[in-house]
Amino acid sequence: MSVSAVACFDHSHFDEASALSRRCAVPLINAVTQKHAKAKELRSFFSSKLGPDPCLILCIDASGLCLYASGELNSSIRANFHSRTATYRRRQGGGRGQMIAKAVGLKHGINPTVLDCTAGLGRDAFVLAGLGCRVTLLERSVPVALLLKDGIEQARVFAQAQDPELLEILQRMRVVEAEARDYLSTLAHERPDVIYLDPMFPLRIKSAQVKKEMQVFHKLVGRDLDSDILLEAARRVAVSRVVVKRPRIAPTLEGPEPSHVLEGKSTRYDIYLPT
User: pLDDT of 83-130, one tens digit each?
Assistant: First the structure.
């Protein structure tokens, strides 16, 4: 599902919203009157503007950019690197003892460069940057790339005033809007130590535990159908290893068996050596 409109909830961001609507080639909705609307009122407002069918809307408010899903989901997502949750994970998440740190080969004095080919909302990339890695966040979905860039900018403004440590972390994160395979073909002379893949896995709709946030994300991005090809391309480029994050019960990607596997309660990391 593609984005249907851009909505502006704050007069001070109207120029930014207008530019965004032109870039995405979708209508601009003035939603300033809905700044404090409740969920039911907001759903009714967008239905009156765009019709009753569920749709995705990029929204700009005082907190930055978010993606809103109308209809039954009536929910939104944003990339947020300075929330209480992000700060707690950064400070109390287990440091280099975390599985993801072990998966990419973080050791004392060793901070590999990482190319995250499926950045999503940037949470894993943020963890790795917080542990000392320089991370390039690759995202082929234009709306998701915009969310990432805005999330980093909003966090940077916050960090400049209140959190110098966070500012250092953000300086190790770079967002690139590109198709992964095309981007990998350009890296003959600047190969990353580690390439990180977290392919979109089909939602288990029957599970009541699936968060609305992930449902919104799936509606926008869909399933990654080229993961097997991307793994092959990544192995030709990575200097040290390719790490594939999977649900614990998911099958491995097609191709060679992983050289090593780290398995947790719900997630595992399949580790491949480069070709």
Answer: 999 999 898 888 889 999 999 999 888 899 999 999 999 999 999 999
Give the separation between CA 78 and CA 65, rounded to whole angstroms. 7
pTM of the model: 0.91
Residue 80: partners with Cβ closer than 8 Å, 6 or more residues away: 86, 151, 154, 155
Query: Cα separations (Å) of 156 from 55, 162, 171?
Result: 30, 10, 9
Reading phi first (left if > 0) and then psi (alpha if -120 to 50, else beta), residue 38 is in beta
Yes or no: say if 74 and 244 are a contact pair by the CB < 8 Å rule: no
For residue range 58-81, what is the model confidence (pLDDT) as tens digits? 999 999 999 999 887 788 899 999
Q: Are 193 and 136 in contact (CB under 8 A)?
A: no
